[in-house]
Specification:
Elements lengths: L1 E8 L7 E8 L1 H16 L6 E9 L4 E13 L4 E14 L4 E18 L1 H42 L2 E3 L9
Antiparallel strand pairs: 1-6, 2-6, 2-7, 3-4, 4-5, 5-6
Helix pairs in contact: 1-2
Length: about 170
């Protein structure tokens, strides 16, 4: 079986959405954001995950880093994959701190069949039908991420930040 995979950036040309939070209990706010992921994106527990949580408790500041992902099926061939990363610090005694949230998303389209049939079938399918559908999926993905950003900004007083072009982003 041959597999054709097309990966489209949902947020092009920006690539990332950055939100920052400064205030009391930044890790508590990050946990509340985690609780919003499943209901907002309408995915089950198998459609989301938190695969990395790092803590550094040495010194006066507690540093933390966390990574979440979301996979939402749009069709039999297309899946939205969202990547959320938080890095921040919280003072041990006062509880004040900050974090930066980075949101990235891709629309992954996979099509598979026998090798000699893949190219002609894909060309016909995409020409007559799937290019318009894929474009709508990319727009839907972008709109969903912007609504998520706006909801986070409204409920948790997060600030939208822009990273200059060419900056290295972790």
């Amino acid at each position: 079986m041959a597999v054709l995979e097309i990966v489209d950036d949902c947020l092009a040309p920006e690539r990332h959405i950055f939100l920052t939070y400064t205030g009391p209990n930044p890790w508590g706010v990050a946990e509340k954001i985690t609780n919003l992921i499943e209901p907002f994106f309408h995915v089950s527990a198998s459609g989301t995950g938190n695969d990395i949580i790092n803590w550094d408790v040495v010194g006066d500041q507690i540093s933390f880093y966390s990574h979440w992902w979301v996979k939402k099926k749009f069709s039999a061939h297309s899946t939205m994959k969202v990547d959320l990363r938080i890095i921040g610090k919280q003072h041990k005694t006062t509880g004040e701190g900050y974090f930066r949230l980075r949101i990235t998303a891709d629309l992954v389209t996979q099509f598979s069949t026998f090798g000699f049939l893949l190219k002609p079938l894909w060309y016909l399918y995409s020409y007559f039908f799937y290019n318009r559908v894929r474009r709508r999926f990319i727009e839907r993905c972008r709109e969903m991420l912007h609504r998520f950003r706006d909801e986070l900004k409204e409920h948790y007083d997060l600030k939208y930040t822009e990273i200059p072009a060419g900056a290295v982003v972790g």
